[in-house]
Amino acid sequence: MPRRTATTANAILGLLALRKEWSTWELTKQLRRNMRFFWPRAESQIFEEAKGLERKGLARAKQTFSGRRARTTYTITAAGRRALREWLATPPRPTALECEPLLRVFLADFATPEQLRAALEQVRADADAILDVGRVVGAEYIAGTSPFQDQVHARALVFDFLSHHALMLRDWVDRAEATIAQSERAPQRRDRRAVAAIEAVLTAYPPPLHLVSSPDGRARPSTARADPS
Q1: DSSP 3-state assignment of 23?
Q2: Which listed residue, of 73, 93, 118, 121, carries a Cα 20 to 30 Å from 105's Cα?
Q3: Is the pLDDT confidence value at 129 over 90?
Q4: Helices and strands (H, E) in the chain, number of each type
């Protein structure tokens, strides 16, 4: 099974492990509510993954009817819990960033000013979508009414990550818009300002891992070899 697909299946297994049973609608709602910001998946794939878990014996499906409407609920099996533990024991893949608006900024010389502004506005809209959900979810946890209140110790860490990510996106859009406006007013100084901006950002970087502090307080190259493992 491709690693990306396997991760989606394990995300669903993890949800199944949290509750006695889930309907496919509840799974979709939960994935759509907040997990979509860091593991987005189409609803059709969620349905297929849930069925796949059943075929592999990792989940058990039960179908009931409300009138003529069918409702399928899933529960995790003992084999599913073992599979989840085994997956969590494997090293995670590196963090990956996928951002089409940023790709369009990267190719800004081929875009019109209006197209570039549209790309930035999409980033702002994405950030606002995270914050809109965060306002609702955060208030639920503070009030003690969240359906996952027993998971608040873990959910708070995810809340912190997504909130700061959204605020970073908004701040970046503000800076990018200001930079573009400056370039439009004084295009002859554009490149010089760009290099200065890179220099300013670099000053905030932490020292690289291969540098160590010497007795005089200055960073020196480390002679230690990296652990090949």
Answers
A1: strand
A2: 93
A3: yes
A4: 8, 5
Other C-beta atoms closer than 10 Å to the C-beta of 182 total 13
The CATH topology of domain 3-88 is: Arc Repressor Mutant, subunit A (1.10.10)
What is the distance between the alpha carbons of residues 56 and 118, in angstroms, rounded to a whole number?
45
66-70, 163-167, 216-220: which has the minimum mean pLDDT? 216-220
Length of the chain equals 229
Structure-token pair, residue 171:
């701040």
Distances in Å between the alpha carbon of 144 and those of 150, 158, 217, 229? 9, 17, 48, 44
**pTM reported for the whole predicted model:** 0.82
Range from 12-21, 33-42, 80-89, 131-140 carrying the lowest mean pLDDT = 33-42
Q: Each residue of 55-110: pLDDT tens digit? A: 999 999 999 887 788 889 999 999 999 999 999 999 999 999 999 999 999 999 99
Residue 65 is predicted with a pLDDT of: 85
Dig out the tokens for 216 from the structure.
């005089």
The full set of domain ranges for the chain reads 3-88, 100-203
Q: Is 30 exposed, middle or buried (0-12, 13-18, 19+ CB in 10 A)?
A: buried
Q: Where are the beta strands (DSSP E) in the chain?
A: 22-23, 59-66, 69-76, 211-213, 219-221
User: Measured between alpha carbons, how far is 191 from 193 in angstroms, rounded to an integer?
Assistant: 5
Task: Answer for the pair 27, 15: CB distance below 8 angstroms, yes or no.
Answer: yes
Q: Which amino acid is at 77?
A: T
- The residue whose two tokens read 């160590």 is 212
Looking at residue 47, its pLDDT comes to 86
